[in-house]
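Continuing from yesterday's entry. The apo prediction looked reasonable, so today I'm repeating it with pyridoxal-5'-phosphate included to see how the binding region is handled. Same sequence as before; SMILES copied from the compound registry.
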Amino acid sequence: MARLARKTVRELTPYQSARRLGGNGDIWLNANESPFDNEYNISLARLNRYSECQPPELINAYADYANVKPEQVLTSRGADEGIELLIRAFCEPNQDSILYCPPTYGMYAISSETYDVNAKVVPLTSKWQLDLEAISQNLDGVKIVFVCSPNNPTGNLLARKDIEALLDMTANSALVVVDEAYIDFCLEESASDLLSSYPNLVILRTLSKAFALAGLRCGFTIANSDIIDVLLKVIAPYPVPVPVTEIAVQALSEAGRARTKFQVLDISANRAYLQAGLSMLDGVTVFDGYGNYLLVKFPNADQLFKALWDNGIILRRSPIENCIRISVGNRDECEKTLAFIRSQLEQQ
Ligand SMILES: *Cc1c(COP(=O)(O)O)cnc(C)c1O
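Holo prediction written out below.
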């Protein structure tokens, strides 16, 4: 029956998520998950009723956290669904294009491909910043430009003046989507204050990373209300399960936010530990990272990656030459990973 699938889908290579890639490990630092497993109370009452499409208590809680108005917030099954909704709502298949700047998050390419929307690819500069000149020459037919800051997998922030220049450049022609999946690790760097000046700005957020709720599947799209209203036309009628709202509201309560802040500090300290330790090793380059992960260049990444994998330390091989992305785990995981890498490099 597989041959009955759409041609595009038959030819599609799905996203190589950490879960799909498998592995047998004791230390999982390959999906930028949080090491913290927090507790929540859920009541299983009223599950006979459909959930609200956009539960007001959840929308209000996130709007308060993000310092925006409730009508500027849409919630969905992870930020990934936000990417998909934007493409579905704004891009005409086989006609319009998106534009993205690798090395970056893989879902922009995969979601556009799934909906037969063309993708223009303008690589980041050698410093992993936006190549504004090349972008400006490739905007024909582009409806959405996806950028990511802090960028996954490189870890760096995009220069704010470049994001503003991009917003100006596309003011009447395209949305600029700033993927801020990791912004909770450096909240002061958010572009959210630009919403009032730029009607074409869209920001993606998630509870999967700093809020330690990857398994909850809860993300947010922040934009001016006319964009949110368009997305509400294409979203599923009941996208947010009742227990998801219950847990997310607790995570976004005053106590939940305080806990996240504390955990962000803890993870940032572990990131600094890992960065300092790895930088001391011969031939190793650690790139500055603003999220809960580090991109690291090794003399022989393939061999090292496999040795780690075989010993139950599961990291993520990046498509960037000789680079491995390491999620920042708890201190014990960071110590074991650093010690293993040190011993491996001494043997090589
Ligand atoms: C993890 C991640 C997402 C997806 O987040 P979900 O809310 O779990 O779907 C989006 N963008 C980037 C850059 C990510 O790393």
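Comparison notes:
- The pocket of pyridoxal-5'-phosphate is lined by residues 32, 78-80, 105, 148, 152, 179, 181, 206, 208, 214, 219 (CB under 6 Å).
- The CA atoms of residues 93 and 116 lie 5 Å apart.
Will overlay with the apo model tomorrow.
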